Amino acid sequence: MGKLPIRARVATTIGGAAGRMSRLAGRGDGSVIGGVVGLRVAPDLLSQLAAGRQIILVTGTNGKTTTTRLVTAAIGSLGQEVATNAFGANMESGLVSALSSAHEAPYAVLEVDERHLPAMVKQTSPRAIVLLNLSRDQMDRAAEIWLIARRWREAFGANPQCRVVANADDPLIAWAAGSAGDVTWVAAGQRWHEDSWCCPDCGSHLRRDELGWRCGECSLSRPSARWVLDGDNVVDAAGTVRELRLALPGRANRSNAVMALAVASLFGADVDQALPELRKVVSVAGRYTSVQRRGRTLRLLLAKNPAGWLEAFDVIGTSGGSGGSAPVLLAVNAQGPDGRDTSWLWDVDYRVLAGRHVLVAGERSTDLAVRLEADEIPFDLVDDIDAAVDAVPAGPVDIIANYTAFQQIRTTVGRSA
Ligand SMILES: [Zn+2]
User: Fold this and answer.
1) What is the Å distance from ligand 1's center to 56 Cα?
2) Which DSSP category does 183 fall into?
């Protein structure tokens, strides 16, 4: 990237120094502060850093960080360096940091916050965009995700050269992607239907059957997919079936992997070379990690919203060493990044936890306790992660936590693990 204008070069140098200072001061990985400082010196830094590279943006409500990691691994099978914001810093400053820390990388796989996608499309001129799903986040109302979908639709319509890889099973995603010039549809599945009962185009009731979904009134229906997730298998665009056999657990991650393979193949990656790279991914920013603590094996899962909890229940119920019977700790906070309103807890069905030893912690443990009582799930209230560990026998423990609760637990049990 020797072609960068002098102001941009100065900005990345200063930003890099700020990031290193931040790391030295123990304030996280420095990936945001460096970008913030760089952008103050050169406000158009992101478009300058993106120029001349093959940029892939990844967005959606759930699975962004994991899919970004998987796409990075799949693109990496092409044998060239790939820049990425691996730690989920998904606003403009995080993208700047990712690109400036890998000056020479010809590829960049960047997680983007769903609200910022149109602006980031404008600034980075991506070659491809991966659209995973759209559902209520803890802070959103349904109207807001419809607004996000409309803005995406406008952005794709204005950038017909950009290729989109989209989940055909999510009606809102399918509607938003419908304006793009070139869409690769993936049958990636959708477990959470609560935010997509209505047609995004005309507002009528959507019908669902084994073939997918379609509007009862207008012509909107599930697009036919070129890539399909079928159980543990991926069916590629040529119809070849391969077993995924990922290290990452759960159906949501199998969907993410198929999306990753679909986008990598747009860039010429060979599935037989990309798939082994996906299997090497064992944890993503501390998620899915197994940590030893006083003779217990803790498995950490992050779930930030109703759809995310459903995915986490799938992981703990169907996979891993416990066979779906290990004690489960649920931890919920309501600090800024979590959203202060915990009413979304009522959107989750906890009855799948019946028969397991359930423990409840976090600043909003009483909100969760009330919710579990309504579902007639017995539970024990505990003060923190160590109290939970002491309350269960040696062996596996599954932990599902929302954002700041997850970070607190990681700090306690050690980031190195
Ligand atoms: Zn309709």
Assistant:
1) 30
2) E
